[in-house]
């Protein structure tokens, strides 16, 4: 069976809710997607995150996915869109931070504004602590390793004796839960 036929079969099984087909498709196309993504963007972590997000979205939307004749081409296009969206988003954030920094340099905050900002920061910290308590101990550990210690997914997987895929999925689920609780 050819690479393309194999991926088409996995795609159809994925559309029917077969999680193993999702993993098989991921394993079949990951290295190709990674190489392709690195040509668009030099950030290894961003490309890996976008690939993971792509497959998580495929699973989330598997019931509404349409038949595809060329699965790799579909995945390359979807990854390219995701990377370009992320790069545009990062650019907007970078620009916004520069604007905020410029505005802060132009005008000093009043005493009242500083107190209000401190109170809002404290409230946000308390809400975040409450939300973190609702996560599982494993999710908390992986969030700490990824965002507070700055480890890559590969380092997290090695340190916690998990697969990289499990580390991605656990962190994704934790972030999704935190977003839901902090809204």
What's the short version?
InterPro entries: RNA_pol_sigma-70-like, RNA_pol_sigma-70_dom, RNA_pol_sigma70_r2, RNA_pol_sigma70_r4_t2, RNA_pol_sigma_r2, RNA_pol_sigma_r3/r4-like, WH-like_DNA-bd_sf. This protein is mainly alpha-helical. It has 8 helices and no strands.
> Separation of termini?
47 Å
| Total beta strand runs | 0
Helix content: over 70%
Q: What's the tally of helices? A: 8
> How many domain regions?
2
Structural class, please?
mainly alpha
- What CATH architecture label of the largest domain applies? Orthogonal Bundle
Domain RNA polymerase sigma-70 region: 25-91
GO molecular function: DNA binding; sigma factor activity
Protein name: RNA polymerase sigma-70 factor, ECF subfamily
InterPro entries: RNA_pol_sigma-70-like, RNA_pol_sigma-70_dom, RNA_pol_sigma70_r2, RNA_pol_sigma70_r4_t2, RNA_pol_sigma_r2, RNA_pol_sigma_r3/r4-like, WH-like_DNA-bd_sf
Keywords, separated by commas or semicolons:
183 residues; transcription regulation; mainly alpha; Arc Repressor Mutant, subunit A; Rna Polymerase Sigma Factor, Chain: A; RNA_pol_sigma_r3/r4-like; 8 helices; 2 domains
List the helices and strands and how they pair.
Blueprint: H1 3-15, H2 19-40, H3 44-60, H4 71-106, H5 111-133, H6 137-148, H7 153-160, H8 164-182
Domain RNA polymerase sigma factor 70 region 4 type: 126-178
Protein name: RNA polymerase sigma-70 factor, ECF subfamily
Pfam families: Sigma70_r2, Sigma70_r4_2
């Amino acid at each position: 069976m050819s690479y393309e036929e194999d991926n088409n079969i996995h795609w159809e099984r994925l559309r029917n809710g077969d999680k193993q087909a999702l993993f098989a498709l991921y394993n079949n196309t990951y290295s190709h997607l990674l190489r392709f993504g690195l040509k668009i963007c030099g950030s290894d972590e961003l490309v890996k995150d976008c690939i993971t997000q792509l497959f998580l979205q495929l699973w989330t939307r598997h019931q509404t996915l349409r038949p595809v004749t060329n699965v790799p081409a579909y995945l390359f296009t979807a990854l390219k869109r995701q990377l370009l969206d992320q790069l545009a988003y990062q650019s907007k954030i970078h620009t916004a931070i520069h604007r905020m920094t410029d505005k802060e340099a132009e005008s000093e905050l009043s005493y009242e504004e500083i107190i209000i900002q401190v109170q809002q920061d404290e409230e946000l910290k308390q809400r975040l602590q409450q939300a973190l308590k609702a996560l599982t101990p494993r999710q908390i550990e992986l969030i700490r390793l990824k965002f507070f210690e700055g480890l890559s997914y590969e380092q997290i997987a090695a340190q916690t004796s998990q697969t990289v895929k499990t580390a991605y999925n656990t962190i994704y689920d934790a972030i999704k839960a935190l977003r839901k609780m902090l809204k």
